[in-house]
Design a protein that fits this description.
The protein has about 450 residues and is of the alpha+beta class. The chain has three domains: about 160 residues, no CATH class; about 80 residues, Reverse transcriptase/Diguanylate cyclase domain (Alpha-Beta Plaits, 2-Layer Sandwich); about 140 residues. It has 21 helices and seven strands. It has a five-stranded mixed sheet with strand order 3-5-6-4-7, sandwiched between helices. Helix 4 crosses helix 8, helix 7 packs antiparallel against helix 8 and helix 18 packs across helix 20.
Length: about 450
């Protein structure tokens, strides 16, 4: 039932503060009284006066090759409705996950502070529970390592889904949700899909939306729904892999198939492509990667991450950096940005100055530094010598002239706020952010 008491129970004070304090595009004014705000929201829902608002603005992020992603920043009213609905349904839609798939953990549970992001991909800057993302990624990484160590697997394919959230069919998702939760939560399901169908109406000339979930800057709600959308697909691919002596893993939309030979792996991938098409989804052809066992080991850099398990072991950090440089010089296929992020999460004061400066030089590269969040900017600032900190701020400031997406500027300003740096040294960032004001409502 949709009642004030239920809404107040699920949209607790912790989440209420979170949506106010952790959006990249700040709300105007102070945090309103939660109980009064939710009481009015409930009254509007009961009297059918609730209408989803256009997004307050968009965080525009860089995917690759100047292709951008638009992340809507919602009103408190809409965040509350979305979170409330998914919270009510999570017992039914965030369970029965296939072994080896990650993305469907609940919104509830103990919220722990994530001390560092490390290399975990896909974590939204403002996720309600970053620790859960990191925990899932660590488990996924361990299982990928186990696949690599299993000598029965000789061929590996790594792939993901093209424009995953943007391609989810809301009609099919609604049918799946209604089948899973039963009739006793009909009102909540109806409210959820009323919100999803109308949350981007301004951008669709006020036509109802039939495809796509919002990127969900803060609440993690879209993650649960997207993962639920793939459950039948997961079961099909897992059964096919079991039948063909192969392994299957999925984290969000990133997937791994491990098989005894190339022919088997490609046959499974072909079936995966057909099964995804039934859901209106497509494999991302440009990001599919094919490896033998040694190449898969190089791609994941398991040996480097093993060295970096203890962030205070300066000798191992040095060895990891040398291995990273060797990979670069020999042209091996791997994910350099994940290693650089893990290195930044280590205590670089434990390594020689020369090594530290080499690492800092690598992470100041434009392609890296313009695509990391305030945590990594802060780590670079921390390990930069005090006589060079002003130069680092000047560098960030000048970069803003050539960066077209506002996520960089917003992250730099948040970094400045959290580190209490002199914002006068970031005047170009602020100026260019205002120029990009057409991205903000």
């Amino acid at each position: 039932m949709i009642t004030y008491q239920n809404i107040k129970k699920h949209v607790g004070q912790r989440f209420w503060k979170h949506i106010h304090n952790n959006t990249l595009i700040p709300y105007r004014g102070s945090l309103p009284n939660r109980e009064k705000y939710l009481e009015k929201l409930c009254d509007n829902i009961e009297k059918m006066r609730y209408v989803p608002s256009p997004p307050r603005g968009y965080v525009v992020s860089h995917k690759q090759n100047l292709v951008v992603r638009f992340i809507p920043t919602l009103t408190k009213e809409d965040y509350s409705v979305y979170f409330f609905c998914v919270k009510c349904l999570e017992d039914e839609i965030a369970k029965n996950r296939v072994t080896g798939t990650y993305g469907g953990w609940k919104l509830g549970g103990k919220i722990r502070k994530l001390e560092n992001f490390d290399d975990a991909p896909s974590i939204p800057d403002n996720s309600y529970n970053k620790f859960a993302w990191k925990q899932a990624w660590t488990e996924y990484q361990k299982k990928a390592h186990n696949l690599n160590r299993n000598k029965k697997y000789e061929y590996f394919i790594v792939f993901d889904i093209a424009n995953f959230y943007d391609s989810i069919r809301l009609g099919r998702l609604e049918t799946l949700v209604r089948e899973a939760v039963g009739k006793n939560k009909t009102q909540v399901v109806s409210l959820l899909f009323y919100f999803l169908s109308n949350c981007s109406k301004r951008d669709l000339d006020y036509e109802p939306q039939t495809i796509g979930l919002p990127q969900d800057e803060v609440g993690d709600c879209s993650r649960i729904l997207a993962n639920f959308y793939l459950q039948e697909y997961d079961r099909t691919i897992k059964q096919l892999c079991d039948k063909n002596n192969s392994g299957y893993l999925r984290y969000a939309d990133d997937q791994i198939i491990a098989s005894p030979d190339e022919k088997t792996a490609k046959k499974i991938m072909f079936t995966a492509s057909k099964e995804l098409a039934k859901l209106g989804l497509n494999l991302n052809a440009s990001k599919a990667r094919f490896f033998d066992r040694d190449e898969f080991q190089d791609y994941w850099s398991f040996d480097i991450f093993k060295l970096l398990e203890d962030p205070d072991n300066g000798e191992n950090v040095k060895k990891a950096w040398e291995m990273y440089q060797e990979k670069i010089s020999t042209g091996k296929k791997f994910k350099p940005e994940t290693i650089l992020k893990r290195l930044l999460s280590c205590n670089l004061s434990k390594v020689d100055k020369n090594i530290r400066e080499q690492i800092l030089s690598a992470v100041r590269d434009k392609s890296f530094i313009t695509n990391v969040n305030e945590y990594y900017l802060g780590r670079i600032y921390t390990f930069t010598h005090r006589n060079q900190k002003s130069e680092f701020l000047k560098y960030l400031n000048n970069l803003s002239d050539s960066v077209l997406y506002n996520q960089y500027h917003l992250r730099v300003m948040r970094f400045a706020n959290t580190r209490n740096v002199d914002k006068r040294k970031l005047d170009k960032v602020k100026k260019n952010l205002l120029k990009l004001g057409d991205m903000v409502a």
